[in-house]
Design brief:
homodimer, 210 residues, mainly alpha, Tetracycline Repressor, domain 2, 12 helices, 76% helix, elongated
Amino acid sequence: MNGVTDKRRLSQGAGQRGPAEHERRDQIIRAAEQHIHAVGYRRTSVADLARAIGVSTAYIYKFFDSKRAIGEAICAMTLHGIADKLWSIAEGPGSAEVRLRLIYSALVEQGRAMYFNERQLHEITLVAVEQNWSSIGTYIDTLQQIVRRIVLDGREAGEFERKTPIDEVCGAILQTMAPFSHPVLLQVRLDNLDESAGAVARLVLRSLAP
Amino acid sequence: MNGVTDKRRLSQGAGQRGPAEHERRDQIIRAAEQHIHAVGYRRTSVADLARAIGVSTAYIYKFFDSKRAIGEAICAMTLHGIADKLWSIAEGPGSAEVRLRLIYSALVEQGRAMYFNERQLHEITLVAVEQNWSSIGTYIDTLQQIVRRIVLDGREAGEFERKTPIDEVCGAILQTMAPFSHPVLLQVRLDNLDESAGAVARLVLRSLAP
């Protein structure tokens, strides 16, 4: 249930005009994503985008306030995709323990894929973090909901302890995910990330033991 | 013992010339630190520094290869100061549990002090992380040694469990400190940092319970 609410929020961004005309808006986002994929976000202007897509800048401004609004839409879409994969783990089969481990591995896998295969999307997330775009906050909220879902399941099944306040537990677990979800931290040490994430997941699971 | 070795390593940096003449070198570092404090690292050149200190650029190049070498020396000095405070906690009184909690609080306190009172030093640490300066690696090694010292003390005193391999435990604890020690992460969320650090410290302590 939480997953659905959150996905709806992720598909919206700041500075986007008009309630309808979704299709044309989506066409621009997809074309902009391709262009930015090749050229990079920082080195792209709205005029460049318009030229690459084959429309006027005025046409783009009918749908987006600024280059940043387009970047936010792309970033939201990317993070939405990651959140979807994480939700399918959280709501999937397996004990709470197994699902929590899988979340750490999936964070590393997504981060690595973005860094190696989609470097320009990684650049957008760096800008997004720097400028505190709303999609980042939404993504962090989603991660928090995912953690909460799994911890609640684990408490209900008797897998996890129930003494510590749930907000404290979930907030602290979210912090332990920073080295594997923050784009700046991910880029400096991709080498032994799987091992690190595994060790942190196991530490967290020991802390959750009843 | 480890503390002493490490401190010696911290006082050395890359690209520094001449084995002796420490005093003149230190004078340059102190003067450079004052200048950079006022103007910022990125906006300072070696020529600016020479002018501000009242010496020739040739004189500075007798001691330092480059602006970066001066920056590295300042960064090493700053991180050395923080490491000193952390060591005095690690080797100080109190149970291992108390000392581990204090390390998390001290990280937040040092990070906040640097961000608010010594913004230009914070800027240097950002550049240092970006460019992977050796002082950052040395500081992380020191943090790792500090964690290890406390965990070993706690194991010996029967406060902490002894089943999990010590390297795995210490490595994972180090990861949980990233949100409170990494300059990029510190700058985005200074608001509820004490609460967060406390919650993570308690999570780690629950994971260490015998």
